[in-house]
Specification:
With 151 residues, the protein is mostly helical. It is built from six helices and three strands, in the order ααβααββαα. The protein has a three-stranded antiparallel β-sheet. A hairpin with a 7-residue loop joins strand 2 and strand 3 (91-95). Helix 1 packs across helix 2 (35-47) and helix 3 (52-59) packs across helix 4 (63-75). The chain is globular. The two termini are 36 Å apart.
Length: 151
C-alpha cells in the first residue's frame, strides 16, 4: 500500500475517533454527565459490578478520583455501593442498568437506527472485513494501552 493511501486511512481513522468523541460528549452533556464519566459508566455497563480498585485499574484513575466518580453516579441513582459478603472492607460498585439505560437509550436511538441501516447496506463479505478491521484495531489499541500503562 502506498504512503499516500496510509496517510489517507490514518486521517480518516482520526476523523472517526474525533467525531466519536464529539458525539459522546454531546450525549453526556444531554444526560447531565461529563464525557469521561459517561464513558466510565459504559465500563460498568459492559463489565458489570466491580470493586472500586478494579474500576481504578480499568480506567487508570486514582482511587480518590474513582470515589468521586462513584459519588456522582450514586447521586444520580446510576450505581449503588454494596459491601462484599466475604469482606465488609471491600466495596462493590453495582450498576443500576435499568436507570442507566433509561437515561442513555433515548439519546442514542437515532444514532442506533441509522447505524443499523448503514450495517444493512453492506454485504456479508464486507461485514466480515469490517469486523476483522475493528477486532485487529482493538487488539493494537489494547496492546498499546497496556504497554503505555506499564510501570
Amino acid at each position: 500500500m502506498g504512503n499516500n493511501r496510509v496517510k489517507q486511512l490514518r486521517k480518516l481513522s482520526q476523523h472517526y475517533a474525533y467525531s466519536s468523541i464529539q458525539m459522546h460528549e454531546a450525549v453526556a452533556r444531554k444526560a447531565g454527565l461529563s464525557g469521561t464519566d459517561h464513558k466510565y459508566l459504559g465500563f460498568l455497563i459492559e463489565k458489570g459490578q466491580m470493586t472500586a480498585g478494579e474500576l481504578s485499574n480499568l480506567t487508570g484513575l486514582t482511587t480518590g478520583a474513582v470515589t468521586g466518580l462513584i459519588d456522582r453516579f450514586e447521586k444520580k441513582k446510576l450505581v449503588k455501593r454494596q459491601f462484599a459478603e466475604d469482606d465488609r472492607r471491600k466495596v462493590i460498585i453495582v450498576p443500576n442498568t435499568e436507570n442507566i439505560m433509561a437515561l442513555l437509550e433515548p439519546l442514542y436511538a437515532t444514532f442506533r437506527h441509522k447505524s443499523e441501516k448503514l450495517y444493512a447496506s453492506f454485504s456479508n463479505k464486507e461485514i466480515v472485513i469490517i469486523e476483522a478491521y475493528f477486532s485487529k484495531a482493538i487488539e493494537i489499541m489494547v496492546e498499546t494501552t497496556t504497554k503505555l500503562n506499564e510501570k
